[in-house]
Design goal:
The chain has helices at residues 12-28, 40-44, 69-77, and strands spanning 2-7, 32-37, 53-56, 59-63. The protein is of the alpha+beta class. The protein has a 4-stranded mixed β-sheet with strand order 2-1-3-4.
Length: 78
């Protein structure tokens, strides 16, 4: 199971990012644990200055803007 965190204030882009990740995992048949981190200290702990940020299994893989479908697929399948 992949542990994925979406870092952000809960803004529209953060919600879209979480939905895109959930959909990609469902389509790939991959189980994920998705957590939304909205606490500013928690977000800053990853060094994210622009949200949304995405952390996969403890590693920051994206920040700033909604990620495209190809990277999201690689995160859930990889």
């Amino acid at each position: 199971m992949k542990n994925i965190k979406v870092l952000g204030s809960g803004c529209r882009n953060c919600e879209i990012t979480a939905n895109v990740i959930t959909l990609a995992a469902k389509q790939a048949g991959v189980a994920i644990a998705l957590e939304k981190v909205t606490d500013i200290a928690g977000i800053m702990a990853y060094g994210v200055m622009s949200t949304p940020g995405v952390v996969v299994d403890g590693k920051l893989v994206h920040s700033g803007g909604i990620p495209g479908p190809d990277p999201v697929r690689s995160w859930v399948e990889g």
